[in-house]
Amino acid sequence: MAFESYVLVCGGTACVSGGGDSVVEMFKKELEAAGLAEKVQVVVTGCLGFCEQGPLVKILPQGTFYVQVKAEDVKEIVAEHLIKGRVVSRLCYDPDQAKKLVADANIPFYQKQYRVVLRNCGVIDPEKIEDYIARDGYKALEKVLFEMTPEQVVDEMLKSGLRGRGGAGFPTGMKWKFAMQQPKGQKYMVCNADEGDPGAYMDRSTLEGDPHSILEAMTIAGFAIGASKGYIYIRAEYPLAIQRLEIAIKQARDLGLLGEKILGSDFDFDIELRFGAGAFVCGEETALLQSIEGNRGMPKPRPPFPAVKGLWGCPTVINNVETLANIPVIINKGAEWFSKIGTETSKGTKVFALTGKVNNSGLIEVPMGTTLREIIFDIGGGIRGGHEFKAAQTGGPSGGIIPPQFLDTPIDYENLAKIGSIMGSGGLIVMDETDCVVDIAKFYLDFTVDESCGKCSPCRIGGRKLLNYLNKITDGRGVEDDIKQLEAISDAMCKASLCGLGQTAANPVKSTLRYFMDEYMAHIKDKKCPAGKCSKLISYVIEAEKCKGCTLCARKCPVNAITGTVKNPHVIDQSKCIKCGQCIASCKFGAIVVK
Amino acid sequence: MAKLTLEDLRKMREEKQKAMDMRDSANKNIQVIVGMGTCGIAAGAKDAFSALIDAINEKGLTNVLIRQTGCMGLCHSEPTVEVIMPEMPAIIYGNVDAATAKEIVEKHIVGHQLIDNKICDRPSIDIITNG
Fold this sequence. Notes:
The complex is a heterodimer of chains A (595) and B (131). With 595 residues, chain A is of the alpha/beta class. Chain A has helices at residues 13-33, 74-83, 129-134, 139-147, 150-160, 172-181, 202-209, 211-225, 239-254, 285-292, 321-333, 335-339, 372-379, 413-418, 437-451, 457-474, 481-496, 500-505, 507-515, 517-524, 552-556, 582-586; strands spanning 5-10, 40-45, 57-60, 64-66, 188-193, 229-235, 270-276, 316-320, 349-356, 362-367, 389-394, 401-402, 427-432, 540-542, 562-563, 571-572, 592-594. In chain A, strands 10-9-13-11-12 form a 5-stranded mixed sheet. A 4-stranded mixed sheet of chain A has the order 2-1-3-4, with helices on one face. In chain A, strands 7-6-5-8 form a 4-stranded parallel sheet, sandwiched between helices. In chain B, a hairpin with a 6-residue loop joins strand 3 (81-84) and strand 4 (91-93).
């Protein structure tokens, strides 16, 4: 016996603390009283993601969405909605007083997310080409091959306003146009799947969840620029993505969607995989091409740009995975449809890998122009453990840090650049007050110093120098003059480095200096780390009045730095303490603090 | 497999679309879709997958189709399992371990009940079907 309706009550942290529990109890009571206990099931769910409007209630199968529901509202919902079938409009969210209240949870307004790139991820079986075809797969290729000229395809790309999702945001249509205008002959289409930013996994998920969309997009691009050969440059660290791409390529070849005379047309195109060994610099396009050619992955000066002189000296277009995933949709639904999504200068959506100190970490896709607040608090469910939002980091090691005053800035390429960060490939790391920004800058510098190819000296030497100064500051040996040095080296690296890696490597330093100078000063002048992260600047102290003398911490301490007798307050010997934190974790009385 | 012509591809798309619709209603078939991206697998999707198969076999259900898919984006709730069946709203369950997988078969599929504390919200509407 199936239930007729289901009442879903959000069990997310915010909703529960807002009284969600009593709403559940009240529903059960009222349904029992109305004799509906057999017909309506009440269920507690995971976070429904509209936390600021909680407690949230969703009624299925209609999908009606009620906000700010209190226990006293339940009786009305049961009597009106569940018995009479009428929506209780006063509990529906009113986005704008002038507009009608919206009750249907399936309309885009509630769904802060909008999935263009990830349209098939989590829906189709990525190892079945039929699943992709059923969801309009290879329909764009049909249209391009039989109804459009290469010029029209490029024109459509230009009109759509699509910009490269790999980081720099160069208009995709322009890239294609340059390559198309080159004289006929051997040209190449390359997909950059060398996703290397720490904490970013958008491209991996797209390739694993919807490999055919990339193959289709590359074939379309090949048709537009006049290339007959494509390469996907993917990290060898992505075995599942590689496996699914290999399956997809085989299926497409078997069905004649890759190879000679595709779908009976005159167009030939084939794709091969090339594996990267995990060097971060190979995400830079000229280094990537070197690596495909079998050389050591090192960047070259531009111009000539790859669109003119790329792989083996031939015109080559390089597009990132996410950029490509947009293309079949743009062809199918038209440039105009696409250009309506997003902001004035940045069209479409952006996929972010939302990680860090956020409740609902995950892979999200939002229209350009969504604010950081919507991403972190509505979709991400807020900061984990009730901590304070301190900053968000976008663009990985090439990006910057965004402080709380920009939470309501609409995110697009221009706005992010203005506040000292970059869109990057889409890593979005959320930090709370226990994260030290100097330590974060150090983390990223450590990464780029490690990944610098060493070809140009601003990056090779500058990065190392920056890291040395940061180490000095976090060790408590910093002097005020170090700040000037950091600024000067950052500027020089930015101006003089050969490729994007070096030009942007100082961004984490520059943006933390810009917004968190006081925190640098606390490290330098007061020799304190306000976040309690930098181990040389903090000490663990036992508060004598709270210590019960249980001896547990002394037994846990790996270096025997804690002394004391049973039932008497213990003491930490600062000269021995290695600040591993084991004592804090073991103390049951909260007697050990970081100072 | 023979190479497709344009007509073949269109026919295939139409047939497959029909087949997908049929699965949802007329055939009264039940689809259980397991998120098997790297994230899902790392969180234990393979255990959930085999537990689902065991439970379905144990109950002797022949009308259930188990499929895999990529990442739904709900990384905080991996592994995820979506159940689409007649007379029930389509539901996504998160944090599905072997025990929850068993519950999904016994309570949701056989008993037509939703399972407490495991439901996740669908992240977004479908642009393919919603224009």
